[in-house]
Amino acid sequence: MSNRYAIILAAGQGTRMKSKLYKVLHQVCGKPMIRHVVDEASQTQFSKIYVIVGHGADAVKACIGTDAECLLQEQQLGTAHAVRQAAERLAGLDGTTVVLYGDTPLITHETIEKLIDFQEQNHAAAAVLTARIGDPSGYGRIIRDGSGNLAKIVEDKDATPEEKKVLEINTGIYSFDNRKLFSLLGKVENNNAQGEYYLPDVIGLLVQASERVLAYQTEHFEETVGVNDRLQLASAEKYMRTRVNRHHMRQGVTLIDPESTYLSAECTIGADTVIYPGTVISGQTHIGGGCTIGPHTRIRNCEIGEETVVEQSVLEDSWVGSHVQIGPFAHIRPLSKIHDQAKIGNFVEVKKSEIGEGSKASHLTYLGDAVLGKDVNMGCGTITVNYDGKNKFTTHIGDGAFIGCNANLVAPVTIGDGAFVAAGSTITESVNADALAIARSRQVNKENYALKLNYRTNK
Protein backbone atom coordinates (compact mmCIF):
# COMPACT_ATOMS: atom_id res chain seq x y z
CA MET A 1 0.00 0.00 0.00
CA SER A 2 1.25 3.51 -0.80
CA ASN A 3 1.99 6.20 1.77
CA ARG A 4 3.36 3.77 4.32
CA TYR A 5 6.88 4.20 5.60
CA ALA A 6 9.16 2.31 7.96
CA ILE A 7 11.99 3.70 10.06
CA ILE A 8 14.29 1.07 11.56
CA LEU A 9 16.56 2.27 14.36
CA ALA A 10 19.97 0.59 14.12
CA ALA A 11 22.54 3.15 15.24
CA GLY A 12 23.53 1.66 18.61
CA GLN A 13 26.86 0.02 19.27
CA GLY A 14 25.59 -2.63 21.64
CA THR A 15 28.25 -2.49 24.34
CA ARG A 16 26.57 -5.23 26.36
CA MET A 17 27.26 -7.70 23.55
CA LYS A 18 30.98 -7.43 24.47
CA SER A 19 31.88 -7.74 20.80
CA LYS A 20 33.81 -6.04 18.02
CA LEU A 21 30.81 -6.79 15.80
CA TYR A 22 28.08 -4.14 15.87
CA LYS A 23 24.95 -5.34 17.60
CA VAL A 24 22.53 -5.48 14.69
CA LEU A 25 25.01 -7.54 12.67
CA HIS A 26 24.99 -10.44 15.11
CA GLN A 27 23.28 -13.39 13.51
CA VAL A 28 20.11 -15.25 14.41
CA CYS A 29 19.67 -18.53 12.51
CA GLY A 30 22.46 -17.56 10.15
CA LYS A 31 21.18 -14.08 9.23
CA PRO A 32 22.11 -10.70 10.76
CA MET A 33 19.41 -9.27 13.01
CA ILE A 34 19.05 -6.14 10.87
CA ARG A 35 18.42 -8.31 7.80
CA HIS A 36 15.60 -10.13 9.58
CA VAL A 37 13.89 -6.81 10.30
CA VAL A 38 14.47 -5.36 6.82
CA ASP A 39 13.24 -8.54 5.15
CA GLU A 40 10.06 -8.61 7.23
CA ALA A 41 9.47 -4.90 6.58
CA SER A 42 9.96 -5.53 2.85
CA GLN A 43 7.00 -7.93 2.92
CA THR A 44 4.77 -5.18 4.34
CA GLN A 45 4.83 -3.18 1.08
CA PHE A 46 6.13 0.06 2.53
CA SER A 47 6.63 2.87 0.06
CA LYS A 48 10.04 3.41 1.57
CA ILE A 49 12.17 1.83 4.29
CA TYR A 50 14.76 3.91 6.12
CA VAL A 51 17.43 2.50 8.41
CA ILE A 52 19.02 4.89 10.90
CA VAL A 53 22.69 3.93 11.22
CA GLY A 54 25.46 5.18 13.47
CA HIS A 55 28.07 2.86 14.95
CA GLY A 56 29.47 0.63 12.22
CA ALA A 57 27.49 2.52 9.60
CA ASP A 58 29.51 1.23 6.65
CA ALA A 59 29.20 -2.40 7.73
CA VAL A 60 25.48 -2.07 8.36
CA LYS A 61 24.98 -0.37 5.00
CA ALA A 62 26.86 -3.18 3.26
CA CYS A 63 24.59 -5.72 4.97
CA ILE A 64 21.41 -3.91 3.92
CA GLY A 65 22.48 -3.17 0.35
CA THR A 66 19.79 -1.56 -1.78
CA ASP A 67 16.84 -2.96 0.19
CA ALA A 68 16.53 0.20 2.29
CA GLU A 69 17.93 3.72 2.45
CA CYS A 70 20.38 4.33 5.27
CA LEU A 71 20.43 7.67 7.11
CA LEU A 72 23.32 8.56 9.40
CA GLN A 73 22.76 9.59 13.02
CA GLU A 74 26.15 11.07 13.80
CA GLN A 75 25.42 11.48 17.51
CA GLN A 76 23.23 8.96 19.31
CA LEU A 77 20.95 11.30 21.31
CA GLY A 78 17.96 9.04 21.80
CA THR A 79 15.20 7.36 19.84
CA ALA A 80 13.28 10.54 19.03
CA HIS A 81 16.47 12.13 17.75
CA ALA A 82 17.09 9.03 15.63
CA VAL A 83 13.65 9.24 14.01
CA ARG A 84 14.25 12.93 13.26
CA GLN A 85 17.02 11.90 10.85
CA ALA A 86 14.25 11.00 8.40
CA ALA A 87 12.54 14.38 8.67
CA GLU A 88 14.03 15.71 5.44
CA ARG A 89 12.48 12.77 3.56
CA LEU A 90 9.17 12.37 5.38
CA ALA A 91 8.11 15.55 7.18
CA GLY A 92 4.99 17.00 5.57
CA LEU A 93 3.94 13.79 3.79
CA ASP A 94 0.57 12.17 4.30
CA GLY A 95 0.57 8.55 5.37
CA THR A 96 1.65 6.19 8.12
CA THR A 97 5.12 5.69 9.59
CA VAL A 98 6.07 2.64 11.64
CA VAL A 99 9.11 2.73 13.94
CA LEU A 100 10.96 -0.58 14.30
CA TYR A 101 14.28 -1.65 15.77
CA GLY A 102 17.23 -3.43 14.22
CA ASP A 103 17.75 -5.54 17.34
CA THR A 104 14.26 -7.12 17.34
CA PRO A 105 14.87 -9.90 14.78
CA LEU A 106 11.76 -11.89 15.71
CA ILE A 107 9.22 -9.30 14.57
CA THR A 108 7.03 -10.52 11.70
CA HIS A 109 5.40 -8.68 8.86
CA GLU A 110 2.04 -10.04 9.98
CA THR A 111 2.33 -8.25 13.33
CA ILE A 112 3.51 -5.05 11.66
CA GLU A 113 0.55 -5.13 9.27
CA LYS A 114 -1.94 -5.73 12.09
CA LEU A 115 -0.58 -2.72 13.99
CA ILE A 116 -0.82 -0.46 10.93
CA ASP A 117 -4.31 -1.64 10.02
CA PHE A 118 -5.48 -1.13 13.60
CA GLN A 119 -4.22 2.43 13.64
CA GLU A 120 -5.48 3.38 10.17
CA GLN A 121 -8.91 1.77 10.46
CA ASN A 122 -9.53 3.59 13.74
CA HIS A 123 -8.24 6.90 12.34
CA ALA A 124 -5.84 7.23 15.27
CA ALA A 125 -2.88 9.58 15.50
CA ALA A 126 -0.79 6.68 16.76
CA ALA A 127 -0.99 3.07 17.85
CA VAL A 128 1.40 1.48 20.33
CA LEU A 129 2.23 -2.21 20.03
CA THR A 130 1.75 -3.69 23.48
CA ALA A 131 1.92 -7.11 25.08
CA ARG A 132 0.64 -8.73 28.25
CA ILE A 133 3.27 -10.60 30.26
CA GLY A 134 3.35 -12.27 33.64
CA ASP A 135 6.29 -10.28 34.99
CA PRO A 136 6.30 -6.73 33.61
CA SER A 137 9.19 -5.56 35.78
CA GLY A 138 11.44 -3.13 33.93
CA TYR A 139 8.89 -2.35 31.22
CA GLY A 140 6.80 0.77 30.72
CA ARG A 141 3.16 0.15 31.67
CA ILE A 142 0.23 0.88 29.38
CA ILE A 143 -2.43 2.85 31.21
CA ARG A 144 -5.75 2.97 29.37
CA ASP A 145 -8.65 5.35 29.89
CA GLY A 146 -12.29 4.35 30.40
CA SER A 147 -12.78 3.97 26.64
CA GLY A 148 -9.82 1.66 26.24
CA ASN A 149 -7.69 4.27 24.56
CA LEU A 150 -4.16 4.86 25.74
CA ALA A 151 -4.02 7.47 28.49
CA LYS A 152 -0.29 7.31 29.21
CA ILE A 153 2.83 5.18 29.28
CA VAL A 154 4.44 5.02 32.71
CA GLU A 155 8.03 3.85 33.03
CA ASP A 156 8.62 1.16 35.63
CA LYS A 157 10.70 3.40 37.88
CA ASP A 158 7.99 6.09 37.85
CA ALA A 159 4.98 3.83 38.31
CA THR A 160 2.84 3.88 41.43
CA PRO A 161 2.26 0.62 43.31
CA GLU A 162 -1.14 0.36 41.62
CA GLU A 163 0.32 1.04 38.16
CA LYS A 164 3.01 -1.58 38.75
CA LYS A 165 0.24 -4.20 38.92
CA VAL A 166 -0.62 -3.52 35.27
CA LEU A 167 0.58 -6.42 33.12
CA GLU A 168 0.27 -4.71 29.72
CA ILE A 169 3.62 -3.29 28.67
CA ASN A 170 5.00 -1.02 25.94
CA THR A 171 7.08 -2.88 23.36
CA GLY A 172 8.49 0.34 21.90
CA ILE A 173 7.08 -0.32 18.42
CA TYR A 174 4.75 2.39 17.10
CA SER A 175 2.59 3.25 14.12
CA PHE A 176 2.11 7.02 13.62
CA ASP A 177 0.20 9.40 11.46
CA ASN A 178 3.25 10.66 9.61
CA ARG A 179 2.45 14.40 9.66
CA LYS A 180 1.62 14.38 13.36
CA LEU A 181 4.75 12.43 14.22
CA PHE A 182 7.14 14.88 12.59
CA SER A 183 5.23 17.94 13.77
CA LEU A 184 5.85 16.84 17.38
CA LEU A 185 9.38 15.42 17.23
CA GLY A 186 10.86 18.90 17.53
CA LYS A 187 8.90 19.46 20.76
CA VAL A 188 10.41 16.49 22.54
CA GLU A 189 12.75 17.62 25.31
CA ASN A 190 15.73 15.93 26.89
CA ASN A 191 14.98 16.69 30.52
CA ASN A 192 16.20 13.36 31.83
CA ALA A 193 19.28 11.88 33.44
CA GLN A 194 20.66 10.71 30.09
CA GLY A 195 20.03 13.99 28.32
CA GLU A 196 18.41 12.12 25.42
CA TYR A 197 15.28 12.64 23.32
CA TYR A 198 12.89 9.73 23.77
CA LEU A 199 10.29 8.66 21.22
CA PRO A 200 7.64 7.65 23.81
CA ASP A 201 7.40 11.35 24.70
CA VAL A 202 5.66 11.87 21.34
CA ILE A 203 2.87 9.63 22.62
CA GLY A 204 2.52 11.85 25.66
CA LEU A 205 2.36 14.96 23.49
CA LEU A 206 -0.35 13.43 21.34
CA VAL A 207 -2.42 12.56 24.39
CA GLN A 208 -1.96 16.11 25.74
CA ALA A 209 -3.22 17.44 22.41
CA SER A 210 -6.35 15.25 22.77
CA GLU A 211 -5.34 13.16 19.78
CA ARG A 212 -6.59 9.59 19.67
CA VAL A 213 -3.86 7.16 20.67
CA LEU A 214 -4.57 3.43 20.73
CA ALA A 215 -2.83 0.40 22.14
CA TYR A 216 -2.77 -2.77 20.05
CA GLN A 217 -1.99 -5.84 22.13
CA THR A 218 -0.11 -8.60 20.36
CA GLU A 219 -0.37 -12.22 21.42
CA HIS A 220 3.27 -12.78 20.50
CA PHE A 221 5.37 -10.93 23.04
CA GLU A 222 8.48 -12.86 21.99
CA GLU A 223 8.45 -11.12 18.61
CA THR A 224 9.00 -7.75 20.24
CA VAL A 225 11.91 -8.58 22.55
CA GLY A 226 15.13 -6.74 21.78
CA VAL A 227 18.55 -8.38 21.86
CA ASN A 228 21.02 -6.55 24.07
CA ASP A 229 23.41 -9.27 25.23
CA ARG A 230 24.49 -12.82 24.46
CA LEU A 231 21.83 -14.35 26.70
CA GLN A 232 19.07 -12.60 24.79
CA LEU A 233 20.78 -13.50 21.52
CA ALA A 234 20.65 -17.19 22.49
CA SER A 235 16.96 -16.84 23.42
CA ALA A 236 16.21 -15.21 20.06
CA GLU A 237 18.12 -17.96 18.26
CA LYS A 238 16.09 -20.65 20.02
CA TYR A 239 12.76 -18.97 19.27
CA MET A 240 13.66 -18.32 15.63
CA ARG A 241 14.93 -21.87 15.18
CA THR A 242 11.62 -23.22 16.44
CA ARG A 243 9.77 -20.94 14.01
CA VAL A 244 11.95 -21.99 11.06
CA ASN A 245 11.72 -25.69 11.87
CA ARG A 246 7.94 -25.56 12.22
CA HIS A 247 7.67 -23.83 8.86
CA HIS A 248 9.58 -26.62 7.13
CA MET A 249 7.65 -29.38 8.89
CA ARG A 250 4.39 -27.75 7.78
CA GLN A 251 5.77 -27.82 4.23
CA GLY A 252 6.28 -31.59 4.35
CA VAL A 253 9.82 -31.93 5.69
CA THR A 254 10.45 -34.54 8.39
CA LEU A 255 12.70 -33.47 11.24
CA ILE A 256 13.41 -36.52 13.39
CA ASP A 257 14.39 -34.32 16.34
CA PRO A 258 13.62 -30.63 15.75
CA GLU A 259 15.38 -29.54 18.93
CA SER A 260 18.71 -30.83 17.65
CA THR A 261 18.28 -29.67 14.05
CA TYR A 262 19.62 -26.25 13.01
CA LEU A 263 18.21 -24.73 9.83
CA SER A 264 19.12 -21.38 8.33
CA ALA A 265 16.33 -18.84 8.02
CA GLU A 266 17.21 -18.65 4.31
CA CYS A 267 17.35 -22.33 3.35
CA THR A 268 14.68 -24.11 1.32
CA ILE A 269 13.89 -27.82 1.58
CA GLY A 270 11.62 -29.95 -0.58
CA ALA A 271 8.78 -32.11 0.67
CA ASP A 272 9.48 -35.66 1.89
CA THR A 273 13.07 -34.86 2.77
CA VAL A 274 14.07 -36.42 6.09
CA ILE A 275 16.60 -34.65 8.31
CA TYR A 276 18.23 -36.55 11.16
CA PRO A 277 19.50 -35.11 14.47
CA GLY A 278 22.66 -33.06 14.74
CA THR A 279 22.33 -31.59 11.25
CA VAL A 280 23.24 -27.95 10.58
CA ILE A 281 22.02 -26.41 7.31
CA SER A 282 23.19 -22.83 6.88
CA GLY A 283 23.33 -19.99 4.39
CA GLN A 284 21.58 -20.05 1.01
CA THR A 285 21.16 -23.81 0.90
CA HIS A 286 18.47 -25.36 -1.32
CA ILE A 287 17.63 -29.06 -0.92
CA GLY A 288 15.23 -30.93 -3.17
CA GLY A 289 12.47 -33.32 -2.23
CA GLY A 290 12.87 -36.87 -1.01
CA CYS A 291 16.41 -36.45 0.30
CA THR A 292 17.88 -37.99 3.42
CA ILE A 293 20.22 -35.70 5.34
CA GLY A 294 22.25 -36.60 8.43
CA PRO A 295 22.70 -37.45 11.15
CA HIS A 296 25.47 -35.04 12.18
CA THR A 297 25.83 -33.36 8.82
CA ARG A 298 26.78 -29.76 8.02
CA ILE A 299 25.71 -28.15 4.74
CA ARG A 300 26.46 -24.51 3.88
CA ASN A 301 25.46 -22.60 0.74
CA CYS A 302 24.82 -25.70 -1.35
CA GLU A 303 22.25 -26.74 -3.92
CA ILE A 304 21.18 -30.37 -3.70
CA GLY A 305 18.83 -32.17 -6.08
CA GLU A 306 16.12 -34.77 -5.52
CA GLU A 307 16.41 -38.02 -3.53
CA THR A 308 20.05 -37.51 -2.59
CA VAL A 309 21.51 -39.05 0.58
CA VAL A 310 24.06 -37.15 2.66
CA GLU A 311 25.20 -38.99 5.76
CA GLN A 312 27.54 -37.63 8.46
CA SER A 313 29.37 -35.32 6.06
CA VAL A 314 30.34 -31.70 5.45
CA LEU A 315 29.35 -29.85 2.25
CA GLU A 316 30.32 -26.25 1.47
CA ASP A 317 29.46 -23.89 -1.40
CA SER A 318 28.87 -26.68 -3.91
CA TRP A 319 26.28 -28.14 -6.29
CA VAL A 320 25.03 -31.70 -5.92
CA GLY A 321 22.64 -33.42 -8.31
CA SER A 322 19.86 -35.94 -7.79
CA HIS A 323 20.14 -39.55 -6.61
CA VAL A 324 23.64 -38.87 -5.29
CA GLN A 325 25.09 -40.72 -2.31
CA ILE A 326 27.52 -38.82 -0.08
CA GLY A 327 29.21 -40.15 3.05
CA PRO A 328 29.51 -41.17 5.69
CA PHE A 329 32.38 -38.88 6.67
CA ALA A 330 32.88 -37.19 3.31
CA HIS A 331 33.99 -33.58 2.84
CA ILE A 332 32.75 -31.65 -0.18
CA ARG A 333 34.78 -28.44 -0.27
CA PRO A 334 33.79 -25.23 -2.12
CA LEU A 335 33.24 -24.98 -5.86
CA SER A 336 32.60 -28.68 -6.38
CA LYS A 337 29.96 -30.06 -8.71
CA ILE A 338 28.67 -33.61 -8.29
CA HIS A 339 26.34 -34.87 -10.99
CA ASP A 340 23.38 -37.23 -10.77
CA GLN A 341 23.81 -40.78 -9.46
CA ALA A 342 27.41 -40.19 -8.39
CA LYS A 343 28.79 -41.65 -5.18
CA ILE A 344 31.22 -39.95 -2.81
CA GLY A 345 31.85 -42.45 -0.05
CA ASN A 346 33.44 -42.59 3.37
CA PHE A 347 36.52 -40.47 4.02
CA VAL A 348 36.53 -38.97 0.54
CA GLU A 349 37.48 -35.31 0.12
CA VAL A 350 36.41 -33.38 -2.97
CA LYS A 351 37.81 -29.90 -3.60
CA LYS A 352 36.91 -27.66 -6.55
CA SER A 353 36.17 -30.70 -8.68
CA GLU A 354 33.49 -31.91 -11.05
CA ILE A 355 32.31 -35.49 -10.65
CA GLY A 356 30.44 -36.81 -13.67
CA GLU A 357 27.16 -38.67 -13.73
CA GLY A 358 27.39 -42.16 -12.24
CA SER A 359 31.02 -41.79 -11.22
CA LYS A 360 32.21 -43.25 -7.93
CA ALA A 361 34.85 -42.54 -5.34
CA SER A 362 33.75 -44.96 -2.67
CA HIS A 363 36.36 -44.49 0.04
CA LEU A 364 39.63 -42.94 1.22
CA THR A 365 40.21 -40.72 -1.81
CA TYR A 366 41.24 -37.11 -2.44
CA LEU A 367 39.92 -35.38 -5.56
CA GLY A 368 41.31 -31.87 -5.84
CA ASP A 369 41.01 -29.73 -9.01
CA ALA A 370 39.77 -32.77 -10.91
CA VAL A 371 37.27 -33.18 -13.73
CA LEU A 372 35.76 -36.65 -13.95
CA GLY A 373 33.57 -37.79 -16.80
CA LYS A 374 30.70 -40.25 -16.58
CA ASP A 375 30.92 -43.68 -14.93
CA VAL A 376 34.46 -43.25 -13.67
CA ASN A 377 35.63 -45.58 -10.90
CA MET A 378 38.16 -44.11 -8.46
CA GLY A 379 39.88 -46.82 -6.45
CA CYS A 380 40.45 -46.67 -2.72
CA GLY A 381 43.34 -44.42 -1.65
CA THR A 382 43.58 -42.57 -4.97
CA ILE A 383 44.92 -39.01 -4.95
CA THR A 384 44.85 -36.35 -7.64
CA VAL A 385 48.15 -34.61 -6.90
CA ASN A 386 47.15 -31.04 -7.72
CA TYR A 387 49.79 -28.87 -6.00
CA ASP A 388 53.48 -28.49 -6.77
CA GLY A 389 54.17 -26.10 -3.91
CA LYS A 390 53.41 -23.00 -5.95
CA ASN A 391 50.54 -23.68 -8.34
CA LYS A 392 47.42 -25.84 -8.59
CA PHE A 393 46.88 -28.04 -11.66
CA THR A 394 43.92 -30.00 -13.02
CA THR A 395 43.46 -33.72 -13.56
CA HIS A 396 41.08 -34.74 -16.37
CA ILE A 397 39.60 -38.25 -16.34
CA GLY A 398 37.49 -39.42 -19.28
CA ASP A 399 34.22 -41.34 -19.34
CA GLY A 400 34.35 -44.93 -18.13
CA ALA A 401 37.95 -44.79 -16.91
CA PHE A 402 39.01 -47.15 -14.11
CA ILE A 403 41.56 -45.93 -11.60
CA GLY A 404 43.01 -48.69 -9.45
CA CYS A 405 43.57 -48.46 -5.71
CA ASN A 406 46.33 -46.34 -4.23
CA ALA A 407 47.10 -44.48 -7.46
CA ASN A 408 48.66 -41.02 -7.63
CA LEU A 409 47.62 -38.90 -10.60
CA VAL A 410 50.18 -36.09 -10.78
CA ALA A 411 48.56 -33.07 -12.44
CA PRO A 412 48.46 -31.72 -15.02
CA VAL A 413 47.53 -35.04 -16.52
CA THR A 414 44.71 -36.51 -18.62
CA ILE A 415 43.33 -40.03 -18.40
CA GLY A 416 41.47 -40.92 -21.59
CA ASP A 417 38.03 -42.47 -21.98
CA GLY A 418 37.93 -46.11 -20.91
CA ALA A 419 41.57 -46.10 -19.78
CA PHE A 420 42.76 -48.35 -16.94
CA VAL A 421 45.31 -47.27 -14.35
CA ALA A 422 46.84 -50.17 -12.44
CA ALA A 423 46.75 -50.18 -8.66
CA GLY A 424 49.70 -48.53 -6.94
CA SER A 425 50.70 -46.49 -10.00
CA THR A 426 52.05 -42.95 -9.95
CA ILE A 427 50.94 -41.40 -13.21
CA THR A 428 52.93 -38.39 -14.45
CA GLU A 429 52.09 -38.61 -18.15
CA SER A 430 48.71 -38.62 -19.91
CA VAL A 431 47.09 -41.94 -20.72
CA ASN A 432 45.32 -42.47 -24.02
CA ALA A 433 41.78 -43.77 -24.29
CA ASP A 434 41.41 -47.52 -23.67
CA ALA A 435 45.08 -47.82 -22.65
CA LEU A 436 46.46 -49.61 -19.58
CA ALA A 437 48.91 -47.56 -17.51
CA ILE A 438 51.28 -49.24 -15.07
CA ALA A 439 53.75 -47.03 -13.23
CA ARG A 440 55.31 -48.94 -10.35
CA SER A 441 58.57 -50.69 -9.55
CA ARG A 442 58.97 -54.39 -10.27
CA GLN A 443 58.67 -56.49 -7.12
CA VAL A 444 61.82 -58.28 -5.96
CA ASN A 445 61.73 -60.96 -3.21
CA LYS A 446 65.01 -61.78 -1.36
CA GLU A 447 64.70 -65.07 0.45
CA ASN A 448 65.63 -65.09 4.19
CA TYR A 449 66.84 -61.48 3.98
CA ALA A 450 64.50 -60.42 6.80
CA LEU A 451 66.63 -62.45 9.21
CA LYS A 452 69.59 -60.13 8.56
CA LEU A 453 67.56 -57.02 9.47
CA ASN A 454 67.42 -58.18 13.09
CA TYR A 455 64.19 -56.22 13.78
CA ARG A 456 62.42 -58.98 15.62
CA THR A 457 62.09 -58.95 19.38
CA ASN A 458 63.53 -62.05 21.08
CA LYS A 459 61.03 -63.76 23.30
Automatic annotation (TrEMBL):
Region Linker: start-end pairs: 231-251
Annotated keywords: Acyltransferase, Cell shape, Cell wall biogenesis/degradation, Cytoplasm, Magnesium, Metal-binding, Multifunctional enzyme, Nucleotidyltransferase, Peptidoglycan synthesis, Repeat, Transferase
Keyword Glycosyltransferase set for record: no
Subcellular location: Cytoplasm
GO CC terms in record: cytoplasm; membrane
Binding site for acetyl-CoA: 386-387, 423, 440
GO MF assignments: glucosamine-1-phosphate N-acetyltransferase activity; magnesium ion binding; UDP-N-acetylglucosamine diphosphorylase activity
Catalytic activity: alpha-D-glucosamine 1-phosphate + acetyl-CoA = N-acetyl-alpha-D-glucosamine 1-phosphate + CoA + H(+); N-acetyl-alpha-D-glucosamine 1-phosphate + UTP + H(+) = UDP-N-acetyl-alpha-D-glucosamine + diphosphate
Any single biological process term in GO: lipid A biosynthetic process
Pyrophosphorylase: region residues: 1-230
EC number annotated for this UniProt entry: 2.7.7.23, 2.3.1.157
Named cofactor requirement(s): Mg(2+)
Protein name: Bifunctional protein GlmU
